[in-house]
Design a protein that fits this description.
single chain; alpha/beta; FAD/NAD(P)-binding domain; 2 domains; five-stranded parallel beta sheet; 13 helices; binds NADP nicotinamide-adenine-dinucleotide phosphate
């Protein structure tokens, strides 16, 4: 036995939490999943070309490699299959309640437990672990006239597979990582594609999606090589990519790499100028793709930079006139800055999480919030990364929560001290100053007031060190 744990979400984070509970012999947990299957973002994003631009060997649990080791970068079906396989292998399915959304969670001080309300009723838990992700609520743009469009229209994360885009005029609004992956695939079948770009993105190549047969054989015969490869990928990200985001030695190197990629792929100077960002590399999430630029050079693809004024029944109206469209794909990103506060969460003294976070979401280590005992967040505020795998961060967070469980079991509900939160905030603000995300650009890393609430400003290694073991002195306990 052990504490009774409610896990919200069955994506990478929720499954990782459940697996570690299982490994520790704690079976008193329930995963609440609002969707009809496990997989989180990899269940929801089924757009053509969907995949991960982080190396598979790092974008996977350290304790469970992809069974198919044939690809350097996994596609969405492969990742979803991997997560479904994890749920099966570790026997999690019987503990997962699918199609069950958590509506609210309230801490009952007299009982020292959480009242978790779902669409199916209310249950008591000792601990709540939120694993709802940062990129799970599609954001439609605030462009007037959206509802007047007469053709098919959908968000990239809610792809409508019943719509046949073959031969059609397709408008894609947005040019982030999702658009970069779907545009090349859609352009192959569409009659014409207009990509509406408001701000150009920095793009670096995603080379060698498949491993060569020789490498695959070597991986199969010498398992140690896979661990070494994972380690190499991790170090490359930490020592070359991370400094480029922190104003370090590689800033210029990575910028030149991206510019070289643009020059190599796009020969038309007018198009190249349109695609050249004017803000520092990394301020917005860098796009990692080798097919995006070539798709934009196709004769049947136009990059439209005229400002969109409204959507009309027949297409997209810009300041330069109407661009006709049969279908519109909104690759316009996600609502990212609210985190768990989209669920009604009430802590000690009736404090509402949404109210506590009205000036910006924040949590100690991105995991714990003062006045909310025994509530732990995975992929919470300031734990996103711009350079390496979020699965690594999730594993750090899960290990931390596992370290908290014996403490709260023996000393009662634990709650991070406001002083620890203040120190955390000060350090975060200090470290954030040197990061490129603060430069003049808009991005989903920031909330409405411009505060970076998404990202962790340190290296992944520094985060692992900070989260290695919970410090009891940072918490107050009921007993
Ligand atoms: P995104 O990066 O937030 O991009 C949204 C795009 O929509 C931007 O180009 C934005 O333009 C545009 N946009 C938003 N509102 C608009 C409006 N009113 N008018 C015109 N354009 C508008 O979203 P995303 O591409 O879905 O990617 C989100 C994140 O998901 C990524 O950054 C990444 O972390 C993750 N992702 C990862 C992978 C992977 O391979 N690992 C793949 C896909 C997504 P502005 O830039 O001007 O705001």
């Amino acid at each position: 036995m052990g504490p009774n744990v409610a896990i919200i979400g069955a994506g990478f984070g929720g499954l990782c939490m459940a697996i570690q509970l299982e490994k520790a012999g704690i079976r008193s947990y329930t995963i609440f999943e609002k969707g009809s299957d496990v997989g989180g973002t990899w269940r929801d994003n089924t757009y053509p070309g969907a995949g991960c631009d982080t190396h598979s060997h790092l974008y996977s649990f350290s304790f469970e490699r992809y069974s198919s080791r044939t690809r350097r970068y996994a596609g969405q079906p492969e990742i979803l299959h991997y997560l479904q396989g994890c749920a099966d292998k570790y026997g999690l399915r019987s503990r997962i309640r699918l199609n069950t959304a958590v509506v609210s969670a309230a801490f009952d001080e007299s009982l020292g437990k959480w009242r978790v309300r779902t669409s199916a009723g209310e249950e008591l838990f000792d601990v709540v672990v939120s694993a709802i992700g940062q990129l799970n609520r599609p954001q439609l743009p605030d462009i007037p006239g959206i509802s007047t469009f007469s053709g098919a229209a959908f968000h990239s994360a809610r792809w409508d597979h019943s719509v046949d885009l073959a031969g059609k005029r397709v408008a894609v609004i947005g040019n982030g990582s999702s658009a970069a992956q779907l545009v090349p695939k859609v352009a192959e079948v569409a009659g014409h594609l207009d990509l509406f770009q408001r701000t150009p993105n920095w793009v670096i190549p995603k080379q060698g999606i498949d491993f060569s047969p020789r490498v695959r054989t070597a991986f199969r015969l010498v398992p140690f090589l896979q661990r070494a490869y994972r380690e190499w990928v991790y170090r490359y990200a930490e020592h070359i990519l991370y400094p480029a985001l922190a104003g370090g030695w590689s800033t210029d190197l990575v910028r030149k790499y991206a510019l070289g990629h643009l020059h190599e792929q796009v020969s038309d100077p007018v198009l190249r100028a349109k695609l050249t960002p004017s803000y520092p590399l990394g301020c917005k999430r860098v796009v990692i793709d080798s097919d995006f630029y070539p798709a934009l050079t196709r004769p049947d693809v136009d990059v439209v930079t005229d400002r969109i004024t409204r959507i009309v029944p027949g297409g997209v109206e810009t300041v330069a006139g109407v661009r006709e469209a049969d279908a519109i794909v909104y690759a316009t990103g996600f609502e990212t800055s609210e985190f768990l506060s989209t669920i009604e969460v009430t802590g000690r003294g009736g404090r509402r999480l949404a109210e506590e976070w009205k000036d910006g979401a924040e949590a100690y280590l991105g995991i714990a919030v003062p006045h909310f005992p025994n509530l732990f967040l995975l992929y919470g505020p300031n734990t996103n990364l711009g350079h390496t795998s979020i699965v690594f961060m999730l594993e750090c967070q899960v290990r931390y929560v596992m370290g908290c469980l014996p403490q709260l079991a023996s000393r009662g509900p634990m709650e991070v001290r406001p002083e620890a939160m203040d120190t955390w905030r000060q350090n975060l603000d200090r470290d954030m100053e040197g990061m490129v995300w603060q430069a003049g650009c808009t991005s989903w890393y920031k909330n409405a007031s411009g505060r970076v609430t998404g990202n962790w400003p340190g290296s992944a290694t520094a985060y692992r060190r900070l989260t290695r073991t919970p410090r009891p002195e940072a918490f107050q306990f009921a007993r």
